[in-house]
Amino acid sequence: MQYVIEVNGTARRVDVDGETPLLWVLRDKLDLKGTKFGCGAAQCGACTVHMDGQPIRACQTPIASVGTARITTIEAIGQTPVGQHVQAAWIELDVPQCGYCQAGQIMSATALLTHTPAPTDHDINDAMSGNLCRCATYTRIRAAIKRAADLGRT
Amino acid sequence: MLRRRNFLKASLAAGGGLLLTATLRGPAGAATLGTAGPDAVALNAYVRIAPSGQVTITAKNPEIGQGVKMMLPMLIAEELDVAWADVQIEQADLDARYPGQVAGGSTATPLNWLPMRQVGAAGRQMLIAAAAAQWGVPAHDCATEPGKVVHPASGRSLTYGALASQAAAIPVPDLAKLPLKDPKSFRIIGQPTRNIDVPRIVTGQPMFGIDVSVPGMLYAVFQKCDVHGGKLVSSNVAAIRGLPGVRAAFEVKGGADLRGLLDGVAVVADSWWEANRARQQLDIIWDEGDITGQSSESFAATAARLAKGKPESSIRRDGDVAAGFAKAAHVIEAAYHYPFLSHINLEPQNCTAHYADGRMEIWAPTQNPAPGSKLVAATLGIPESAIKVHMTRVGGGFGRRLSNDYMVEAAWIAKVVGAPVKLVWTREDDMRHDFYRPAGYHFFKGGVDANGRLIALSDHFVTFSQDGAIAASADMGPTEFPARMIDHLDYGVSMIPLRAPTGPLRAPRSNGLGFAFQSFLDELAHTAGRDPVQFALDILGPPRLLPDPPGPRVGPGFHTGRMRGVIELVAEKSGWGKTKLPKGTGMGLAYYFSHLGYFAEVVQATVDAEGAIVVDKVWVAGDIGSQIINPLNAEHQAQGAALDGIGTALGQGLHVRDGKIVQGNFDTVLPLRMRQSPPVEVHFRVTEFPPTGLGEPALPPALPALANAIFAATGKRIRSLPLKDQDLSATA
Amino acid sequence: MIRLSLVATVLASLLSVAAARAEDATARGEYLARAGDCVACHSVPGGKAFAGGLKMATPVGTIATTNITPDPETGIGRYTLDDFDRALRRGVARDGHHLYPAMPYPSYAVMADDDVRALYDYFMHAVPPVRQANLPSDIPSHLSPRWPLAVWNALFAPSPGFTPNPGHDARWNRGAYLVEGLGHCGACHTPRGWAWQEKSFGAGDPAFLAGANLDDWSASNLRRNVATGLGTWSEADIIAFLKTGHNTHASAYGSMSEVIANSTSYLTDDDLAAIAAYLVSLPATQAETPWRYDPATATALQSGHADAPGARLYAGSCQACHRETGAAAPPYVPPLAGNPTVLDADPASLINVVLNGTAPLVAKGRPDAYRMPQFRAQLTNRQVAEIVTFMRASWGNQAPAVTADEVAAIRKRTEPSTDRIVPLRMR
Q1: Among the listed residues B102, B91, B159, B107, the one whose alpha carbon sits nearest the alpha carbon of residue B130
Q2: How high is the ipTM of this complex?
Q3: Does residue B213 lie in a domain region?
Q4: Which of A10, B594, B631, C313 is deepest in the core (most CB within 10 A)?
């Protein structure tokens, strides 16, 4: 079945079964490998992308359900000011260890900072607890979100 | 302290720059540090200097998030004396010229601290010699500044870029005689240094094994028996071949080695999703073999039964433990248990392989590529010289990827299919086909005298065997703390046969033994009415080195003073005994020596009336020697390791039923999440000892420190993990 | 005359449809065994088909299902057609003892003679015999005498035979035959009375398929109730659900997944259409306010400032799949907005699914692509209650709140579902 979806501002045509998760369309059909496979059950957040600005789990998003929604992935999140601040803060604070979860963390953090520019620890806990980091870099993720918030203020 | 006979070879690099190839004998102490094999044969470290002055340094070891891709080049760059900003880092492939291409045992620092610096120093000396020759001055009148050789007397200077070609022709100096920098003049070592891969990580560039893409690549999944080593009887594989996207589906007959290729059914398709969807329609009849007694309940019952008898064998016996108990003012007994664990690397196991014209090319996220290459050669019957292994960035190691089962699967499938194939496991495959941290049962008895000092301790350790021998990473050594510090001590062991394969998980052995021993020692401190810090310092006694007994895994011994140091440091930093805590909140201490690192940790935790645990804060004090190579990463590794321990204690434990692992995903095995993650304060105590590694030793104390904090908060002693399975509510 | 001929036509079409469907009697028998879902109760996962051994909880104790393979010693190999018929339609075993009505013989009573014979032929000739002794049931001795079952039968079991309703067409009557008979839908979906009897066995009674709680699942109301029933479902929706386990309104879970896996996904399109035609004819039990989407919840969740109790937990644990709109991605991931299970006055199924997740739903051998994970280990009783209450009061949903005690009780009595695909092999 043919689907045309908008990914990172570009219309992309793919020919897959409607049940196919957006994750595998992004990774294997559109060669956008920044979005990661971790659990296939919406339990780890490694596949977080934005659908019309909302963080969703691409592994649990059938391509048939995407419709005309705008999909944004880690490859393009730096095109928004908030995304830029988050990436800069991540680099400045040297957040990653193995790095595998970090694309998903950044997507969730960017969504949080977009609607809550000065998040409290409680806001961070709520917004970020769907994203596992097996290396447990949470101390720096938390600090980097606050740093990105600072960058957004100046 | 590590002696090496070394020599360097230099040659002109293809690009015209200086290529330094260091060949050195493996460190004599390698075997004692837990790495496999005899002296390594040859180490090669690349340093390429472009005419522009750009320096490219090859990182030889697998990067699993421990920061070794930065650390090893930092050592070279320091002694080479280049500006870090001019350094580019290249990840090595598996290459016979590099010894010890393995990520395991926190060994990279102790094994490479001198050799990598010598590689850099040799390069610097050759560059000086080239400049001295050009200027016609004695080499010893020349010096270096970052990226250039200077002649202070004349004020002349030449950049490394300009000198590289001539330097490559200079005879290689004797590494043993090379002067190394005084640590006081380090410009790179000891500086907080950011990971150069982060800009690529935060923009989603493909770096990991799972991101590998090869033209014409197909995607594979592999279904094995959930009872480890079960044999395939029959399957409906023919029906799978007609499913959408499927290019090949076939049965694989494997061997008996649980670390090698096992029986299964491979499904290869145009996309991974199609391959996995087709695989879900497999209907396979397995011969599971004998699964009698292979369940968590049965293991617990067997352990309890074995504990009633004498241990099957002795690990250590000092003094007369019965007499010690008889003399003791208080004697307590307690049974401890920790569960099987999966490594749960966030990047599921995967490997890409391409077999063409008799050659196998492999891209793998592996911690241990060399045995993988050997395994592929032996299983597929192709010479190792025809195998090329590329090491990708690894989305978490934790010891899982010391085994290369997924590599041999990918290679086998690729050879059958005759096209490049990327094998990707599901999360469920990963949890159910792991080399598990073995569960363990400890039946302790301890006695304290009237002065509150520990005088007698026994442990009947019930662990697991595989094929008659003790299972991998399921053993306990004769120096397990507090052995050597207690007069009357008796450690014995009994074993339960296990089908599931076991293996090292971050801080192997220590991650379980630490919980059991450090919790029971806390119990003894409270029984004696002593403060746990004072109780620990009493056991340790005066500062001294306790040498290891001779044996296959002889190490550098245990220094009581270094452990005292970190205990005192963590007590001071945490405000131990000085902080007034509200009801329901408590602090717990634990300390542990592993992987040459001394760590003491304090956890503060709160338990509410419903039994919910909040970990308020963790303080970490560590002694890893004289030099923290990259403080930015060191703090982070210690934080991550401590939190890994907290998460493991809170939410992880596998259940075995009918020989199979019950859990399959992160809804039942719970890694730490942001909302559970406390602040972690890290302090290092710098001592005069050689630098050692940091991937693991900060982990073991975190679990018992949390368990001891819960006791302090609630009066409930935690003798079994994970905590999610315990009822800590006020009414329980 | 007209009336008679209608009956004759209906009967003839029932028989001819059945006859055309199957080339021979055993194939037809196999189809009927599917329609009756015999394998679901008379097998255990991983065990041999129809060899019995499944434990079923009843109000009087746990009974174990029996071996119905043609093994002469441990199965039904010595059953004549009459013996088989007596067990199937009247609940009396060959040795004369009365079966517990966990065996849905009161429903099977409506089966036609020809179908009984076809089923008998299938079990005797196409099912391989399995030597497996029946397990004893652990019903307390004072409750174990079987003679009261005869009384129970006299009181509650309908008399055998199917009488087509001349007020409806052949398709409807075929649907009635399947739903009331072989499909034994009422065994779960019809409320039970004081003696565990289904309150009704036919379309005429408003209690029939009005929804019931069984083993901590609330089997949905299958009548035209517009909020808590199937009132907004088209016939195509019902067909899709029975064929695949999913439609745009809801997804199957619990034992309905097994019904779809072993039974309804194998039914012909004609039979599914007949079932749908029948179900949409069942009037609502009561007038209900139709569910209407309210965008306020989505707006609040999108802003990141939803402060209702449970909203933050929903955002953290559920929203990634079910979305801030509660609309999710049907038919793959079920919506929560307007879903009859969420609107059900009885929250048992919703609590159960949140705690225990769902097992893979296998339709004609193919598992579904998406699965509900379990939250038993991740959420406390209070948190589950807050999330479930939030779902039941959001997006226009109006269903009563849930307490932590209700969650605790269901947690204690239920087990988590497995993600493993366990095929029940009929062949």
Answers
A1: B159
A2: 0.98
A3: yes
A4: B594
Average pLDDT rounded to a whole number, residues B112-141: 94
Helix (H, G, I), strand (E, B) or coil at C93: coil
Position B639 in a domain: yes
CA pseudo-torsion sign C180, C183, C184, C189? negative
Facing A98 at nearest CB: one of B273, B395, B666: B395
Q: Which residues of chain C approach chain B closer than 8 Å at the C-beta?
A: 316, 357, 360, 365-367, 369, 373-375, 377-378, 380, 382, 416, 418-421, 423, 425
User: How many beta carbons lie within 10 A of that of residue B427, not counting itself?
Assistant: 24
Our CA dihedral for B201, B206, B208, B212, rounded to 10 degrees, sits at 180
Listed range (B169-183, B633-647, C19-33, C168-182) with the worst mean pLDDT? C19-33
Structure token pair of residue B460: 């009947």
CA distance B158 to B15: 20
Q: Where are the domains of chain A?
A: 2-72, 77-153
User: How far from A110 is each of A36, B347, B698, C19, C101, CA to CA, in Å?
Assistant: 17, 22, 31, 63, 59
Number of domains composing chain C: 3
The domain containing residue C303 runs over which residues?
296-413
Query: Which residues on chain C are in Cβ contact (under 8 Å) with B280?
Result: 360, 366-367, 421
Could you tell me the end-to-end alpha-carbon distance of chain C, in angstroms, rounded to an integer?
A: 46
Asked, for residue C316, whether it belongs to a domain, the answer is: yes
Convert the pLDDT of each residue in A124-143 to its tens digit.
999 999 999 999 999 999 99
- Neighbour count for residue C154 (Cβ, 10 Å): 8
Q: How far apart are CA B434 and CA C21, in angstroms?
A: 49
% residues pLDDT > 90 (chain C)? 70
A42 closest CB neighbour out of C303, C320, C369: C320
Q: What are phi and psi of B462, to 5 degrees?
A: -105, 115
3-state secondary structure of B16: coil
User: Is the CB of residue C331 less than 8 Å from the CB of residue C239?
Assistant: no
Domain ranges, residue B149 = 6-201
pLDDT of residue B46: 64
Which tokens in the block code for residue B559?
Answer: 């220094």
CATH code, B101? 3.30.365.10
To the nearest whole number, what is the mean pLDDT of chain C?
89
B342-362 pLDDT tens trace:
999 999 999 999 999 999 999
- Summarised one tens digit per residue, pLDDT across range C222-278 is 999 999 999 999 999 999 999 999 999 999 999 999 999 999 999 999 999 999 999
B731 located within any domain: no
* Cβ contact, residue pair A130, C304, below 8 Å: no
Q: Which of A73-82, B63-72, C41-50 has the lowest mean pLDDT?
A: C41-50
Residues of C in contact with B236 (CB under 8 A): none
